[in-house]
Write a structure and sequence with these properties.
There is one protein chain. By secondary structure, this protein is α/β, with parallel strands linked by helices. The chain has a single domain, classed as 3-Layer(aba) Sandwich (Glycerol-3-phosphate (1)-acyltransferase). The protein contains nine helices and seven strands. Strands 1-7-6-2-5-3-4 form a seven-stranded mixed beta sheet, with helices on both faces. Helix 1 crosses helix 2 and helix 6 crosses helix 7. The longest helix is centred in the first third of the chain and has 13 residues. It is globular. The chain starts with a helix and ends in a 5-residue tail after the last helix.
């Protein structure tokens, strides 16, 4: 019930409508990768998924942020089933890629933000290599580009109260790593796939 309620509140606050342009909703394992402009991003993508898919989708989030306070810990663990990763000082024993591969298992999907941090402008930062390594280690998965629009204006960086505006979440055509495709080529192609979802 808590998950359904939170999803409904997120849709009400942001007015975010899901557009499935290049694929249809599916419970198959996927990695949903998106641009990152707001603290609401993961919540809105998660809420935009149909309930049966939402149950299987695990947002990847920064551990240092979500372990602060009982409410954040409750939401991360009990509601979102988030994958909390070390983003500042990863080590061989605390490796974000290892954590994400383990979290995927044989049934879950991930929601990730390859830029690594929120961007305040319209332009995306270069994608980090984690997306490539996931695609290389799990070639059986579909990698779905997702474009989030307007959320940086609904909840600007540094603000706590959302401003009522219409947001949007667009899901594009799934990608897979091409045979012999190098990291930079794949990451550039993935980022271009997100940008291509912008409305004309």
């Amino acid at each position: 019930m808590m998950k359904s309620l939170l999803a409904a509140i997120a849709k009400l606050i942001t007015g975010a409508n899901a557009r499935w342009i290049g694929c249809a909703p599916s419970t198959r394992q996927r990695v949903y990768f998106a641009n990152h402009t707001s603290n609401l991003d993961a919540l809105v993508i998660w809420a935009s998924l149909p309930p049966e898919i939402r149950q299987l989708a695990r947002p990847v989030a920064a551990r240092d942020y979500w372990v602060k306070g009982r409410l954040r810990m409750y939401l991360a663990n009990e509601v979102f089933n988030a994958v909390l990763i070390e983003r500042k000082r990863p080590t061989a024993h605390d490796n974000p890629l290892t954590d994400m591969l383990k979290a995927l298992g044989d049934r879950h999907s991930l929601i990730i933000f390859p830029e690594g941090g929120r961007q305040s402008g319209e332009e995306m930062a270069p994608f980090k290599g984690g997306l490539f390594h996931l695609a290389k280690d799990r070639p059986d998965l579909e990698f779905v580009p997702v474009l989030i629009e307007n959320l940086n204006r609904i909840l600007p960086k540094g603000e706590f109260l959302p401003v009522p505006l219409m947001g949007g979440v667009s899901f594009g055509t799934p990608l897979t790593l091409g045979a012999g495709e190098d990291k930079l080529t794949f990451l550039n192609r993935a980022q271009a796939a997100v940008k291509a979802l912008q409305k004309p």
